[in-house]
Amino acid sequence: MYTLNNPILTGFNPDPSMCRQGEDYYIATSTFEWFPGVRIYHSRDLKNWSLVSTPLDRVSMLDMKGNPDSGGIWAPCLSYADGQFWLLYTDVKIVDSPWKNGRNFLVTAPSIEGPWSEPIPMGNGGFDPSLYHEDDGRKFYIYRPWGPRHHSNPHNTIVMQEYFPQTQRLSPERKTLFTGTPLSYTEGAHIYRKDGWYYLLVAEGGTSYEHAVVVLRAKTLEGPYELHPDVTMMTSWHLPENPLQKSGHGSLLETHTGEWYMAYLTSRPQRLPGIPLLASGGRGYCVLGRETGIARITWRDGWPYVEGGKHAQLTVPGPQMTESHAIAQPTWRDDFDADTLDPELQTLRIPFDSTLGSLSARPGFLRLHGHDSLNSTFTQSTVARRWQHFAFRAETRMEFAPQHFQQSAGITCYYNTKNWSYCFVDYEEGLGRTLKVIQLNHNVPSWPLHEQPILVPENAQSVWLRVDVDRLVYRYSYSFDGEAWQTVPIVYEAWKLSDDYIGGRGFFTGAFVGLHCEDISGDGCYADFDYFSYAPVAE
């Protein structure tokens, strides 16, 4: 038996939904405002996972232009039945309001790679939908409703409707399955069947440090459901020193070898020196966002338990199956030689198409056309990837010839439209090209090099840009020849690109590093990027 190491999916990969097709295992995770929507990972041993599908890759499936920060794709549910994959998802359009508003859809595919069908509307009155496939072929749609008569909390009802795939309709009859425990924020419901019992698995406690998994069971699908003897099946709230926190939002699975596991979301907080662990109710700052962990499940007296204790654990016994060849994790690099972007790269809200840029206009380069600023929720030319390590270096070489002060291009460390930093080249009348940095911190800007920008030599055809992240801080550097590097004399706080620092009602994603080009002059500009690399630093 080999060991599974948590988290199994590092960096921003929350709300895992796990399913199996024969001896192949899949996990779907939330992507929120990042396009394409939903990321699906594959494994043959529950240890080594690779990205195999990003199914919501057409505007007809996912139209997020204008979506708010932390809107978009919430908690997809992936299942396999009747010879095809079924994927439910919510596209959230309103976040910062007394009640949220989203649209639920269903798509199907004969294989995980697709082709995925056009979306089937499943109603707008709830979120975190899932689909239970009964043995007799019937389908049941489970979700948490929301609306004007109740705010996000304490309304915690889980509702079920029958779904008729032949007519693509839901039954108007709704059955309430559960109204929550005092932990509140009941959501993320899934139903499973084992040994004559129906098990209802839900997330509670919110998605921060008090997060938990709660399980119930019943002899019939409609209930009544009784609570687990321990109420919470998983949580790390009782262990503030545990390295894996915020554990909750689980998804159960039985392996082809008859063993049970649960995927769940978790985070790894970094603590600030000199600040007490529980200061202000927090336990640190999770710059890598909400990640995916896995737990081994044992059954006692007809109830599931997390093996080794209900808290998230760094190592877990693996299943009784052959361990796959380990998937190498070398330094990542995209030289932009392919016809499409590397799957690790995503855009904000809209697809990468001829509006945003091109991979063919100049072969071997990514061309980004200048559009909106980094604080826009509409047409923004940003191509980025997740932070997956506490320490790493990201680098690019750029060719850019701005002609106006409203044109810029460079490298960014980004959380959302109100929290980011940007190291860029622009144009100053009387000076020519200059290099600057800007930060938006809770929507408050600062320009430390505004009065004394760094001049770009007239004969410099290229500008190399780099960011070095070292746990709690990061720094930008630049070079005009690719060899002599200079550090920008500004130290940025990495922990300010975390869910915990952002707070409010839109703190569900994670830090990204990416390439950006903007032009609000209306004159038109573009920047060419030769490569983009990301190299973890040994800690």
TrEMBL record:
It holds the Pfam family GH43_C2. The record marks 128 as: Important for catalytic activity, responsible for pKa modulation of the active site Glu and correct orientation of both the proton donor and substrate. It is an enzyme of class 3 (hydrolase). One of its GO terms (biological process) is carbohydrate metabolic process. Its EC number is 3.2.1.55. Residues 333-534 form the Beta-xylosidase C-terminal Concanavalin A-like domain. Keywords: Glycosidase, Hydrolase. The active site is at 15 (proton acceptor), 187 (proton donor). One of its GO terms (molecular function) is alpha-L-arabinofuranosidase activity. Belongs to the glycosyl hydrolase 43 family. This is Alpha-N-arabinofuranosidase. It comes from Enterobacter sp. (strain 638). The lineage of its organism: Bacteria, Pseudomonadati, Pseudomonadota, Gammaproteobacteria, Enterobacterales.
